[in-house]
Amino acid sequence: MSLQQAEQGTKAISKINSLLNSVPVGIPMTSAWLASQGVSPQLAQRYKLSGWLEPLGKSAWLRAGATASMVGAVFAMQQQLSLKVYPAARTALELLGRAHYVPVGKPVLQLSQESDQHIPIWFSQQPFAQNFRVINSTALFDPSYAGLIDWSAENVTIKISSAERAMLEYCYLLPKYTDFEEARQLMEGLTTLRPELLQSLLYACQSIKAKRLFLALASVVGHPWYKQLNIEGIDLGTGNRSVMRKGILHPQFKITVPEEWLDTEQDGF
Fold first, then answer.
1. Using CA atoms, how far apart are residues 77 and 71, in angstroms rounded to an integer?
2. pTM of the predicted model over 0.70
3. Do residues 149 and 92 make contact, with C-beta atoms less than 8 angstroms apart?
4. Cβ-proximal residues to 79 (8 Å cutoff; 6+ apart), any chain
């Protein structure tokens, strides 16, 4: 080996050590981000052969021997690729510790993304994303970023839906992709929603169905924050809405809901 080759090898090792020290374990490294750090596809292949990196599907890499986490993969999409993709609905509530007591069937990863964004193939190929659903945040909220918060874990911080936004997203997915009974259980646990934030989100929400179902359920559960909302100032559209065949029309919000929601012993109607 020539002196020049030895120097190149030393520089390559120094570069990969620096990269790995700057990226927590479990965080994917996208090819685009590696390129911005001076790591070409050819150099990435050398790191693979040397046992430093492993390919993570197309256009992404991972520290050899590590496993990509959902949080780490979302961090890579948000920070390395500047994608406006966020954990949403029940997934966000789970991250916030608001859904652990609610029984769940087959796990579904729920994400929101803006209409011009595309989730990378490498993300959808991960075990945690084998069953995922995407909400179009551009269609649901105006502005699309309303109600997002910073959430930290695994040595990184990502944007996710606040509890207020997440529950509206959950109602938006009713009844085809989420469950009325689970919705009630989730709402019962949301005792500390912030009425000011919720009011602004109800103004920003563009789905009449989501707003009516959210408010109907909130009125049934009857948390103190519900009484602080200005219902009259929210655009709830006109006419009756039917979203379930065997439902009963909510007397105030004019949308079909499970008969159990209108149990007079619990909701006070």
1. 10
2. yes
3. no
4. none
